[in-house]
Amino acid sequence: MAATVLAPLALTACSADGSGAGGDDKPGRPGAADKPVTVSVTPTGNGVEPGQPIRVTAQGGSLTAVTVVDGDGKKVDGKLSEADTVWTADRKAGSAATYRVTAATKSAAGTAGSSRASFSTAKAEQRNKVEFWPGKNSTVGIGQPVSLVFDHPIGNRAEVEKALKVTTSDNTEGSWGWMKHYDGRDRVDWRPKEYWKAGTRVTVEAPLNGISTDTDRMFTRDYATRFTIGAQEVVKVDLDNKRLTLQRDGATVRTIPVSGGTPGGDKRSWGGTSVLVSKEGTINMNSETVGLGDAYNKMVDYSMRLTWSGMYAHAAPWNAAYFGNRNKSSGCIGMSTAEAASFYQDIEVGTPFEITGKDTKGIPAQGNGFSNWNETWEQWQERSAVR
Questions:
Q1: With CB atoms counted within 10 Å of each terminal CB, which end of the chain scores lower, N or C?
Q2: Distance from first CA to last CA of the chain, Å, rounded?
Q3: Phi, then psi, of 165 in degrees rounded to 5
């Protein structure tokens, strides 16, 4: 697409030697060094295709400053080339957006100038939307990852990942990792190298508007969230001894007798580390939805989801005889209603549950809840598309 050539707003001509003589010592004829700088911008026009790089180019001089502002008044960052003749935005032109460009220039003779232009983009026809965890301004546990789940496949994972930015109050080290969400959609999570430190403040920026994800789909908005890490809490579930222990700052603050999944088949509980995905209160649990036939269909109180496949910690008064004695559930971690009620209030979404026992059914797959902590740091880093 052709570039827009910006008309100079203010250029003050002067001679090369300051005497008013023209080039080649001919009075009244401006020297070549006094010609105004020509500035061009791409893309150009109204209703242009989104997703194009934004560039400002100077000919006959250099750029001293470039300001690009979108229709919401937000500044678009960018970088100048080594010779200060080309400015390139850090992001592509978004969907259904208007951009205003101001370029300050300097001619070969040192004359300052300024030019302006604007362009607008059309609305993308096919969109790719994002689900984002955790919620904005939330407080979460020390195991909570940042998680983005995409409506449609991502064919350019590296480009998308490079656009994502996590900023923390204590320079927490972490990495993005790609996987399939439980329902098969593409997903990328950011987890720290180790559990978060209590009190860490986290900001996530995902300026995705304008990035194409396949041949015809595009992100059409930016995303952002901020959250805070709560108490240094870990839940340890020992299914061999049928005990759940809540630890805070390394010290045990409570122990609860529980009953886990029935040994020897599909009703076993998952092992490894699962992060508390959500606190769902009273919900209907139907065994047919998790492939266990018609074993149960009941309302369950104080339900705390650990996997998308249906493992919860919850009140299970019908199993009271087994708490602390025998694993006899359909895979969940059951406890008394009184214990569940207070435990539900004690912990935050994002708290890691470290589950051990000789007869678990293995580790949940990446994407089944937040199973990120079941890989070593080195394994997790291999999931990044930017290495």
A1: C
A2: 33
A3: -140, 130
Residues 6 or more apart from 247 whose CB is under 8 A from it?
A: 233, 234, 235, 236, 253
> For the whole model, what pTM was predicted?
0.86
Do 314 and 350 share a structural domain? Answer: yes
Mapping DSSP to helix (H, G, I), strand (E, B) and coil, where does residue 340 land?
helix
Q: Are residues 188 and 220 in the same domain?
A: yes
Question: Which tokens in the block code for residue 329?
Answer: 């559930």
Q: Do 213 and 298 have their domain in common?
A: no
CA 293, CA 285: separation in Å to the nearest integer?
12
Per-residue pLDDT of 165-175, as tens digits, reads: 999 999 999 99
Residue 135 lies inside a defined structural domain of this protein: yes
For 170-227, how does the pLDDT look when each residue is reduced to its tens digit (9 = 90+)? Answer: 999 999 999 999 999 999 999 999 999 999 999 999 999 999 998 789 999 999 999 9
83, 180: one domain: no
Between CA 22 and CA 218 the distance in angstroms is 54
pLDDT lower than 70: segments of the chain: 1-33, 287-296
**Quick check: bond before 53 cis, omega within 30?**
no
Whether residues 244 and 371 share a domain: the answer is: yes
Which residue type, as a one-letter code, is found at position 7?
A: A
Q: Report the alpha-carbon distance of residue 218 to residue 93 in Å, rounded.
A: 11
Residue 291 and residue 197 in one domain = no
Question: What is the model's pLDDT at position 33?
Answer: 53
Q: Structure tokens of 145?
A: 């990852």
- Specify whether the backbone of 179 is left (phi greater than 0), alpha (psi in -120 to 50) or beta: beta
Do β-strands 174-180 and 223-229 pair in parallel, antiparallel, or remain unpaired? unpaired
Q: By C-alpha distance, which of 218, 126, 202 is closest to 165?
A: 202
Length of the chain: 387
**DSSP assignments along 246-301, one per residue:** EEETTEEEEEEE-B-BPTTSTTSPP-EEEE--EEEEEEEEEGGGGT-TTS-EEEEE
| 326 and 254, same domain (yes or no) | yes
Dump strand ranges (E) for 121-250.
130-133, 138-140, 146-150, 165-168, 174-180, 186-192, 201-206, 223-229, 233-238, 243-248
309: tokens are 């496949």
What the block records as the tokens of 222 is 């930016």
Domains contained in the chain, number = 3
Q: For residue 208, count other CB atoms closer than 10 A to its CB.
A: 24
